[in-house]
Design goal:
6-stranded mixed β-sheet; elongated; 29% strand; 407 residues; alpha+beta; 7-stranded antiparallel β-sheet; 11 helices
Amino acid sequence: MRRVIVARPEDLDLAIPPLQDGRSGITLRDIAAGYSRWVCKDWVRACNVEYRAGPNGPSVSLLAQGGKVWTTGDPRWPVFVIRNGRAEILDSITLVEAQQAQLAFSAGPWLVRAGHLCNLAEEINHYGYSGLRPADVCERAAIGIRSDGMVVYVATDGATLDEVATIMQQQGCSSAIALDGGGSVGVLDNTGRALLGSSARQVCSALMFNRIVDEIVREEVPKMPKRPLRVYLSPSQQPENKGLGDYGTEQQRMHELAWLVGYHLVKLGHAPIVSLRGQKLSHIITFSDLLDIDLHLALHSNALPAMSEKERQKAQLGVVAFHYPGSAVGKRVATALHDALGRLNPHGKGWFTARSDLREISETDAPCVYLEVCFHDDEKEVRWILDNFGLIARTIAETVVKALSSA
């Protein structure tokens, strides 16, 4: 899905909650609720814009609003600013200029300059960005300015950075920059409902649209591959394994994840099969072997062994992926999943390795990967998967397709 919002500069505001050392700790929905209570009840859209160091870390962008500079950000990055009723995107801004502006925030990289598409590789290298994954299809957002002075905000749930730049140019933007992407992308309406992306990620600010001139919603039709990949998704069948807090059981959460991974595989033009809840492992393996599948993917969550609190604090957390010894496809997919999910998980590097003592790996005919997505008995890991559930599912689907297609 793609959402394009057009607004006048005077109808925009930046909501910034009190920040302790510039650190986030409040969701987009909570920021919008606070804006309704203390500033204005009649806003129509709330969107995340700036970058942070990690999903709930300090802002690494400049944030300024109403005469106060909250964070100074990276001075190399371009700045979206509204002053004297006019929106601009500048290469840089002084602190005095930021204080005099109605609002200002930095992001990037540049996507469009003077109406022309930018060389993204050069922009990313010159301005020192990291972790943008420009070639990956994922949630992205951008903001630009048309020649008539209107502000254009675009959010999509699936595009590369080059594709977003093209979209901004097609919308008539003479200048445009990228905003925070992935699990941070979120567009809310006045009721707090997420229209695109998520509102669960902790953020430092929200761009508030008090009125809009136009809004376009477009459903994207994925390009169908020449041969759909058949992926058998086998979520955990262990209802007795209970996680902390709101996690529920391993069986419950992994079945939800499997169906969501399957949804994204269908959107990408592939053919997932999800095993039903309550099946015996022997039946799952038999059914998997009857199908002409490209990959058998077992989805589980992990648990730490009995240990002291001190030992738990030192334990290695993160994503764990197993594959059958000697399976080139299994190793490639396991490695790719470990690396892709590891980039999302700030709590541990996890590991991947060959293993032959797990029945699903050793007894299935098709290449098999046994994926332990998180540790359900660690509070930080539980919060991570719950806050990033949709992004994790999408990443699994896209990574599996990419790894299998590279064979």
